[in-house]
Amino acid sequence: MQRRKKRKKAEDDINPDSWLATYSDTITLLLTFFILLYSMSAVDSQKLKELSESLKHSLTGNTDIAEVEDVTDLKFKTGNSDYEDLSKKLDNTIKSNGLTDVIKIREEDRGIVLQLDESILFDPGKAELKENSREVLEIITTIVNDTDNDVLVEGNTDNIPMNNEVFQSNWELSTARAVSVVRYFVGNQSLKPTRFAVKGYGEYKPLVDNSTPENRATNRRVDILMVEQKEKK
Q: Which residues pair with residue 107 across a beta bridge?
């Protein structure tokens, strides 16, 4: 009688859900593995999906699964991305033409920005391109011609109110300046108009605060954005 009680107690102490701890650890390790793969490089998404589906079916006990190619067949892209190559190419072009003081490069999530100060392109309060600005724009034309990226031209001003006989606000001035640049690319250089778009931000997209004359000069600019091309799947 005593033995039966002991045996019954031992059976009661067995946890029927103990396998869940091992299962959870396995799933966590697999998740970490795939996150690591994704963070290191761009993975062939179709093959990764097939592998993921196979693992899922295996873990749920479903043996009716499609054959999956070996993990080593997953293709990883190595080296610089097209975006990094474009950045280096732009930097080299600007340096080789001695334009580092004229054109500044900014890298943003949306693409690479060529920043041109107002003084290079326009007289104060005007939207007609200066004659000597064309040399700089010709260099940028060469850059645009060598890529397939879409181009967004953005006009920006400082926060000094604008109200003359032509422009009633900084919105209008900044937009007109962006249009003048695009008109040069399309009309004078015969670039495809379908690649271009225009925005005028007025004083509402400053790079720095407008507290000093130097900062206001920095904010009076035209940005030419080489839009980053998303990788096609």
A: 112
